[in-house]
C-alpha cells in the first residue's frame, strides 16, 4: 500500500522535510510517496494543494500525511481543512520556547535557511570554492590553509564528504588521494605529513571498493579485488604509522561520516 | 546576554540541528552559542554532557537550551535531568503518527541519515560526481545527460547551487558560465540551446556581483561595475530570448535558490 506524504512550508520547506523524513524512518515498512512542496505562501497555492491532497487520498485509498512548518495562520488553516492527517511541526515548540526565553517570537517565515548572517554565509561559499579547488590533491601547497584534510585511496568517499562539510559547516576541507607513487615512496609527501593534526583517513572494505571502482573502470586492474585489498592495506599502514584517526566509510553515509569528523574537529571526544 | 544551545542526538544530530535552528531563528535578538553534539549514544557520554550543561549555565548565568532527538529512554532521562531547558523534538509526533499509520515505530535510532536505500544513496553520489565533472561548462556534450543546467555570468552562484542539488536531491546538475565568447557570438552554443527545457538562468544585482568578483580579482576590469552591469544585461537578454526561467540570487541562499529550482523541475508550479 502506498501512502502520499507532503512536506509543506511557506519558504524552503527544508525543516519540514528533514524532521518529516526522520519521523517516517521510524515506519519503514510503509511505502511513502514523498512530495516536496516549498513556497506555499499564498491562499491560492494552499487551496491548490488541498486539491492535490484529495487526489492523493482517492488514488491511495487513504488520506495523505502532511508535515508542515507554517507560521501563517490562514494558510495553515486552509491546509488543515484538507483531506489529510496534518502535523504542524513548529506549533508545539514556539510558545514554550517563547516562555522560557522571555521574548515573543518574530513570526517571520523563511528565516531558517535565508541569509541571516552574511558573514557565515560567505564563509560557507568560500569553503565550497576551497573544496572545489583543493579536490583530489590538486594543490597540496594549500593544505596549510585547510581546516581539515581527508586522505584515503581512490574512491573511498573523500570528495563528497569534503563538499558536505563545506556546504553545511563552512569548513575548508581539502583531500589527498593516496596513490601508487606514495606507496612506492613508502610515505605521504611532506605537505601531507606537515598537517598531520588535521588529517582524517577514510578506509573502506575491499569488496565495496571493488564495486565502486568497477563502475568507473570495469574489468581493470585498478578495480580488481587484489588491487583494492593491497591499496587499503598499505593506506591503513600509513594511517597507523602517523596515528591518523580513521573512519570506515563502507556502510556510512556522507552525513554520518561528516558528523563523526565534526565531533572530532570540535574536540567533542570523551 | 549569551545563551548556550546544545543540539543532541544518538546519531548524526542533523534533524535536531535543523529543527533547532529553525526554532531559534524566531528569536533572533538573542545571541545563541550553538554546540553540536552528535553520537551521544552511551550513558557515559550523556553524563559528560550534563556536566557541560552545568558549566554553560554557570558561565551564561542562565540554563542552556537542549534540542534533542533521542529514542533511547535512559539516555534521554539523563539529559533531561541536567541543568537545562530540555526539548525533545520527536516525542510528540511518533505516537500520534503510529496511531494514524496503524503500526508501531521501529524505535531504531540513526535511521534518518543512514544509507537505508542503497539505490537512492548511490544516485546522490553519482550526482555529486556528475556535478563535479560538469562544473563551469567543462563538458557541454554531457548536458544531454543532465537533469538540469544552470547558466549565468561568472560568480552568479551556479557552482554551489549545483552541488547542493546533487548532494541533497541526487539531481545531475551541470552548469554553463556565459562568457565574452557567447556575447560576441550573440547566442549560446548549440549544446546549450539544445537543452533549453532544462535550463535555469541565474542573475544577480551588479553591485553584489562586483563585490564577489572583487574577492577574486581586486581592481580588475572583470570586477568593475561597468563590466558587471554589461555582463548581467547581456545575459538577461539571452535568458529572455530563449524564454529561460530566471532566478535572482542577490539575497537568496543556495537552499532558497535550490528550493525554487526543485519546485519548478518537479512541475509544482501553479
Characterization of this structure:
The structure is a homodimer of 270-residue chains. In chain A, strands 2-1-3-4 form a four-stranded parallel β-sheet, with helices on both faces. Chain A has a four-stranded parallel β-sheet with strand order 6-5-7-8. In chain A, α2 (43-60) runs parallel beside α3 (73-80), α5 (118-133) packs antiparallel against α6 and α9 (206-216) crosses α10 (225-241). Chain A has helices spanning 14-24, 43-60, 73-80, 91-101, 118-133, 158-169, 180-185, 190-193, 206-216, 225-241, 254-265, and strands at 2-9, 31-37, 65-69, 85-88, 148-153, 173-178, 199-203, 246-248. Chain A is 47% helix and 16% strand. The interface between A and B is large, with 76 and 76 residues.
Oligomeric category? homodimer
Specify the overall morphology of chain A. Answer: elongated
Distance between the amino and carboxyl termini of chain A: 45 Å
Low-confidence region ranges of chain A = none
Spell the H/E element sequence of chain A.
Answer: EHEHEHEHHEHEHHEHHEH
* SS-based class of chain A: alpha/beta
Largest sheet of chain A, in brief, is: 4 strands, parallel
The CATH architecture of the largest domain in chain A can be given as 3-Layer(aba) Sandwich
- Total helices of chain A: the number is 11
Strand order of the largest sheet of chain A: 2-1-3-4
Helix content of chain A: 40-55%
CATH class assignment of the largest domain in chain A: Alpha Beta
- Output mean pLDDT of chain A: 93
Q: Please state the CA-atom Rg of chain A, rounded to the nearest Å.
A: 24 Å
Strand percent estimate of chain A: 15-25%
- Count of spatially separate domains of chain A: 2
Amino acid at each position: 500500500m502506498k501512502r502520499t506524504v507532503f512536506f509543506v512550508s511557506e519558504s524552503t520547506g527544508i525543516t519540514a522535510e528533514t524532521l518529516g523524513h526522520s519521523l517516517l524512518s521510524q515506519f519503514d515498512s510503509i511505502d511513502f510517496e514523498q512530495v516536496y512542496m516549498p513556497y506555499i505562501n499564498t491562499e491560492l497555492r494552499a487551496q491548490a494543494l488541498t486539491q492535490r491532497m484529495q487526489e492523493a487520498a482517492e488514488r491511495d485509498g487513504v488520506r495523505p500525511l502532511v508535515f508542515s512548518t507554517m507560521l501563517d495562520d490562514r494558510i495553515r488553516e486552509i491546509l488543515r481543512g484538507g483531506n489529510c492527517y496534518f502535523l504542524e511541526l513548529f506549533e508545539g515548540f514556539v510558545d514554550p520556547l517563547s516562555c522560557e526565553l522571555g521574548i515573543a517570537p518574530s513570526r517571520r517565515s523563511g528565516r531558517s535557511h535565508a541569509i541571516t548572517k552574511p558573514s557565515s554565509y560567505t564563509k560557507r561559499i568560500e569553503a565550497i570554492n576551497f573544496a572545489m579547488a583543493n579536490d583530489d590533491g590538486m594543490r597540496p601547497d594549500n593544505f596549510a590553509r585547510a581546516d581539515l584534510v581527508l586522505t584515503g585511496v581512490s574512491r573511498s568517499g573523500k570528495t563528497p564528504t569534503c563538499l558536505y562539510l563545506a556546504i553545511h559547516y563552512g569548513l575548508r576541507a581539502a583531500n589527498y588521494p593516496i596513490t601508487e607513487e606514495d606507496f612506492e615512496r613508502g610515505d605521504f609527501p611532506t605537505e601531507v605529513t606537515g598537517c598531520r593534526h588535521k588529517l582524517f583517513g577514510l578506509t573502506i572494505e575491499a569488496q565495496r571498493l571493488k564495486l565502486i571502482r568497477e563502475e568507473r573502470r570495469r574489468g581493470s586492474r585498478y578495480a580488481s579485488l587484489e588491487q583494492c585489498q593491497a591499496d587499503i592495506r598499505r593506506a591503513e599502514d600509513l594511517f597507523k604509522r602517523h596515528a591518523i584517526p580513521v573512519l570506515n566509510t563502507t556502510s556510512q553515509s556522507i552525513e554520518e561520516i561528516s558528523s563523526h569528523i565534526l565531533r572530532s574537529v570540535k574536540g567533542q571526544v570523551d
